[in-house]
Amino acid sequence: MPEAINSELIQGATDFHGHWCPGLAIGIRAAEWALQEMGRSGDEDIVAVVETDMCGVDAIQYLTGCTFGKGNLIHKDYGKNAFTFYRRSDGKAARIVARPGIFGEGHEALGRLHRKMQTDGLTEKEEADWKQIRAMASKRVMEARLADLFEVKEPSGPPPKQARILSSLPCDSCGEAVMESRTRRIHEQTLCLPCFEEMEKRY
Predict the structure, then answer these.
(1) What pTM was estimated for this model as a whole?
(2) Which of 74, 93, 104, 141 could pair with 49 as two cysteines, CB 3.0-4.6 Å apart?
């Protein structure tokens, strides 16, 4: 059992995400590291920058208090199990990266079965194997020492700026309100991004 997270919180994260899986386990352990080293974000003091959109990000939202809505959860689409945490109050920051062998010996089999499931489907035996490997991988992640799961590195940059509340403007094409910072000007019109992209295609 992780030291900073009890069974009730683990169940809460599972319910929030919708199912139990190895990816969620990674997020729980990453959140555990953040809670131990940074504390929980009551408002926007703690910032999480996540480099993946996988299952574990739900655990980070649920457990650390970093959320998209507050602007202190930032997604960078790098496809890496890497998470940077910043504490604005004193400048403490670190980037933790999942080690390549985080799932143990079942990693290759898990990937192979997952790919087959998406393309051809699994046989009854293969599905049973897939579930067993996932359960074993999740158990391994939950029982391992944090130092064995993650490498701690320096952040690649400064903390993101605090979220700003900006005015909204009507798009001159579709009429929908859009945040001012997300508008584009073209042919003396103020457009939302979808309308701007559509107009670009025509010219």
Answers:
(1) 0.81
(2) 74
* CA dist list (Å): 106 to 99, 113, 139, 173: 14, 11, 12, 52
Digits of tens for pLDDT over the chain (203 positions)? 455 789 999 999 999 999 999 999 999 999 999 999 998 877 789 999 999 999 999 999 999 999 988 889 999 999 999 999 999 999 999 999 999 888 877 777 877 888 888 888 888 888 888 889 889 999 999 999 999 999 999 998 888 887 677 789 999 999 999 999 889 998 889 999 999 998 888 77
CATH number, position 55: 3.30.1330.130
Q: Which two tokens stand for residue 16?
A: 């929030």
Question: Within this chain, do residues 147 and 175 fall inside the same structural domain, yes or no?
Answer: no
Assess whether 90 and 182 both reside in one domain: no
Domain of 174? 168-202
If asked whether residues 91 and 118 sit together in one domain, one would say: yes
List the beta bridge partners of residue 92: 87
Instruction: Using alpha carbons, list the distances in angstroms from residue 77 to 50, 52, 54, 64, 114.
Output: 8, 6, 10, 20, 21
1 domain residue, yes or no:
no
In a domain, 105, yes or no: yes
